[in-house]
Design a protein that fits this description.
InterPro entries: Glyco_trans_2-like, Nucleotide-diphossugar_trans
Distance between the termini: 34 Å
CATH architecture: Alpha-Beta Complex
Largest sheet: 9 strands, mixed
Helix content: 25-40%
Domain Glycosyltransferase 2-like: 49-174
Strand order of the largest sheet: 1-4-3-2-5-10-7-11-13
CATH class: Alpha Beta
Structural class: alpha/beta
Protein name: Glycosyltransferase
Pfam families: Glycos_transf_2
Order of helices and strands: EEHEHEHEEHEEHHEEHHEEHEH
Number of strands: 13
Number of domains: 1
Number of helices: 10
Strand content: 15-25%
CATH topology: Spore Coat Polysaccharide Biosynthesis Protein SpsA, Chain A
CATH superfamily: Spore Coat Polysaccharide Biosynthesis Protein SpsA, Chain A
């Protein structure tokens, strides 16, 4: 088989400023004319390691992993990156047949986890990875767009302390926490995905999606997290990986904690991939699944209390001035408009220095 299989293992190792900067944030929209495609890595080790966590979501994870494959990604080769799939054992694991067909740059690791958190799985996956950069995807149910790998590599070339993040979306017309109240579930979710030709044009995912709650203020105001965060390995090591005290179901606010810690790391350059995205498929997730609202609200309250106990304060979105990078598919322009309109309509005076580069739409179908 192409994908490597590793058997069961125990626990692993452990609107002020932004409003005045909206257009100048778009400082470096890379086009093929301005910058060559990332060169293939010929040195043996991959440039970036994706660590993807899976638990009780085989159908959704299969879609996600296909979207990370080199045959789906544009402008990147298998030699450029590796995908480490870490699955915490459940009664509904990925099938052996699917695992056997994983691409050569994928490896699969099944673990017996004693705590209801993905923290140990992520730290383990990073610990066995080889890339110069580490890209954490805490939720294996998030499909990605075809330029993601290429543009993560571009982003890291901007600065040796670049942290690259990707905006988040939910499949459906409204965030799944709300949609589930109206009967939305796996069947409707997968039917929406099947209604588009995403395998041939992954940017069509934007046509059936909305901003996730973490990005509900749009591109030009701070987000609370990213479900695809790529970090230089040295910064990851300096932070000590994920904090294992986040031991609540789903990891509590550990992904938000990672997002804030890496973006507030000294002299970090925040690169956001405006034209790419991660798309959450419904899978009975901790905060987006089919449990009663009261149960979910109680768990979220517990998560907030745990964060305050660990960090000594409530969670606050990190204030950054990101460099927006990448091609802009036509499908994304709706989200650009929705992000800009509240700021452009503000009664407060907003002045912008001349933009360094010009925002231009490029069809993802070309």
């Amino acid at each position: 088989m192409d994908g490597k299989f590793v058997g069961l293992q125990e626990n692993g190792v452990p609107l002020d400023r932004v409003e005045t900067c909206m257009l100048t944030q778009i400082r470096k929209l890379i086009t093929s004319r301005e910058s060559p495609e990332p060169r293939s890595n010929t040195g043996g080790a991959p440039l970036v390691s994706f660590v993807v966590i899976v638990y009780d979501m085989p159908q959704q994870a299969e879609n996600t992993l296909h979207s990370l494959s080199a045959k789906f990604q544009r402008g990147a080769s298998e030699a450029d990156y590796e995908v480490i799939v870490v699955e915490n054992e459940s009664a509904n694991n990925l099938s052996p047949a699917f695992i056997a067909g994983l691409p050569k740059n994928f490896s699969y690791h099944l673990r017996a986890e004693r705590e209801p958190t993905p923290v140990h799985a992520i730290n383990h996956g990073v610990g066995i990875s080889l890339g110069q950069y580490v890209c954490v995807m805490i939720d294996g149910a998030r499909m990605v767009t075809p330029g993601l790998v290429k543009n993560i590599l571009r982003g890291h070339r901007i600065d040796d302390r670049a942290v690259v993040t990707v905006p988040g979306y939910h499949i459906g017309e409204q965030v799944q926490q709300e949609a589930v109240e109206d009967g939305y579930g796996k069947e409707q979710d997968q039917a929406l995905i099947a209604s588009i030709d995403w395998r041939n044009n992954g940017y069509e995912l934007f046509d059936i999606a909305c901003f996730s709650g973490s990005c509900d203020d749009g591109f030009f105001r701070p987000c609370s997290e990213s479900n695809c965060i790529s970090v230089p390995r040295a910064i990851w090591a300096s932070l000590g990986g994920l904090d294992t005290r986040f031991n609540l179901r789903g990891g509590g606010l550990v992904n938000l904690d990672l997002y804030r810690r890496v973006l507030e790391y000294p002299r970090v350059v925040h690169v956001s991939l405006l034209g790419e995205g991660t798309f959450h498929q419904f899978h009975d997730g901790v905060t987006t699944g089919g449990e009663e609202r009261e149960v979910r609200d109680a768990l979220i309250g517990e998560m907030n209390l745990q964060y305050e106990a660990i960090r000594g304060q409530d969670y606050q979105r990190p204030q950054t001035t990101p460099v927006f990078l990448g091609e802009i598919p036509l499908q994304v322009l709706t989200f650009v408009h929705a992000s800009a309109e509240p700021l452009l309509g503000s009664k407060r005076p907003v002045t912008y220095p001349p933009p360094i580069s010009i925002l231009s739409a490029k069809s993802a179908k070309s």
